[in-house]
Amino acid sequence: MLNNKALVFGCGLLIFIVACALLAPWISPHDPYVQDLTNRTVPPFWYENGTWTHPLGTDQLGRDYLSRLIYGARISLLIGISVAIISGLIGTTMGMLAGYFGGKIDMMVSFFVTTRLSMPVILVALATVALVGSSLWIVIMVLGLLKWDRFAVVMRSATQQVRSMEYVSAAQSAGASTLRIMLTEVLPNVMPHLIVIATLEAASAILLEAALSFLGLGVQPPLPSWGLMISEAKSYMFFSFWLIAIPGTALAVLIFAINLAGDGLHQVLTPGERA
Fold first, then answer.
1. Which site from 42, 149, 182, 216 is most exposed, i.e. has the minimal number of CB atoms within 10 Å?
2. Residue-wise pLDDT tens for the chain (275 aa)?
3. Do the beta carbons of residue 68 and residue 32 sit within 8 Å?
4. How far is CA 219 from CA 60, 129, 186, in A?
C-alpha cells in the first residue's frame, strides 16, 4: 500500500482534512457563528488590507472565514460518510440478494434499479427537500435513499462471480446456511468493490449537498456548509472574490482526496491492477 503514490497522497490529504474537522473546537481561531458587523469582508492576510487576526478574512457578516471553513469540513464529511453508509446498506443488500439467488429476485431488483436510474438524482432531491423541508438530516436521508443504485449494480455483478467459486460450493456442501455463506464467504470477497464504490458515492454526495445548499435547499444558515458559504458569497464575487474561491477550493481538494484514495484502494485491492 505504501508503494501506491495515489493512495498515500489521497489518504494523507484526507486524514489531514478529517483531523482538522475533529479538532475544530481547538484549532479554530474564532467562534464560526459570532458576527462582527464592523469587520465585514475583511480580506485574507495576503491582501494589503488583510490581517493575521482573521487569516482567511471574514464574510459579509463579519464571521471568521477560517473558522467557518474548518467547521464546514465537519458538515461535508458527515454528509459523505452518512450517505455512503445508508446507500451502501440498501444497495449492497439488494445487489447481493439479486446476485446470489437470481431468478425473480434478480428481476425485481433490476426493475428497482432501472426505475431509480430513470429519475435524475438532483431533480428528485430538489423536489423532495422543497416539499419536506431542508435541514442537515433531511438532506442526508434524501441522498442516502437516492444513491444506492451503483452499489446494487456492482454488488450484483460481483456476487454473481463469487457464488460460482469453489469455496462457496464447499461451504454449501458443509451444510452452512445461506445467511452464513453470504456474510462469511461472499461479502468479504466483494468488499474491495464495496469500498471503492463507497468512496465514489461519498464524494458524489458531498457535491450534491453543496449544490443543494447553493440553491438554498440544503443545509440552512447559520451552519457553515461549504456550499452554503459559496451561495452566500455569490453576490460579492466581483468585489470579494476570496469569499467564493476559498470554500470552492476546499470543496475541490476534499473531492480530489476522496477520489484519489478510492482509485488507490482499487489498485491495491484488485490483484489485476497491482502491476
1. 216
2. 777 788 888 899 999 999 999 999 999 988 899 888 888 888 898 888 888 888 998 888 889 999 999 999 999 999 999 999 999 999 999 999 999 998 899 999 999 999 998 888 888 888 888 888 778 888 889 899 989 999 999 999 999 988 888 888 898 888 888 889 888 888 888 888 888 899 889 999 998 888 888 887 878 888 888 888 888 888 888 888 888 999 999 999 999 999 898 888 878 876 555 44
3. yes
4. 18, 10, 38
CA–CA separation, 198 and 189 (whole Å): 16
Kindly state the DSSP code that residue 165 receives in the 8-state scheme: S
Whole-structure pTM value: 0.88
> Secondary structure of 118-156 in the HEC alphabet?
CCCHHHHHHHHHHHHCCCHHHHHHHHHCCCCHHHHHHHH
Could you say which of 3.30.2130.10, 2.30.33.40, 1.10.3720.10, 1.10.287.1700 is the CATH number of the domain covering 5-273?
1.10.3720.10
Please list, in sequence order, all residues whose beta carbon lies within 8 angstroms of the beta carbon of residue 141, skipping any fewer than 6 positions away: 86
Q: What one-letter code names the amino acid at 65?
A: Y
Taking the C-alpha atoms of residue 198 and residue 14, their distance in angstroms, rounded to an integer, is 15
Strand partners for 51: 54
